[in-house]
Design brief:
Elements: E1 21-27, E2 33-37, H1 38-50
Antiparallel strand pairs: 1-2
């Protein structure tokens, strides 16, 4: 079964400010806990999109 065959549902989108923490942390090279921000998530998504490879047919 593919994802397209499942019923679609609407999910609420909660917009946050770019520098607002979104509910997680990473540990930096110095061992400090750094909150993950909306900016960090958006940057990671942009990096993934750059590396996206279309599937072979």
């Amino acid at each position: 079964m593919s994802l397209q065959s499942q019923p679609s549902e609407t999910l609420p989108v909660q917009r946050v400010q770019p520098h607002q923490a979104v509910g997680g942390s990473i540990i930096d090279a110095q061992g400090r806990e750094v909150p993950i921000t909306e900016d960090m998530v958006q940057q990671a998504c942009r990096e993934l999109e750059k590396r996206l490879v279309a599937p072979r047919k």
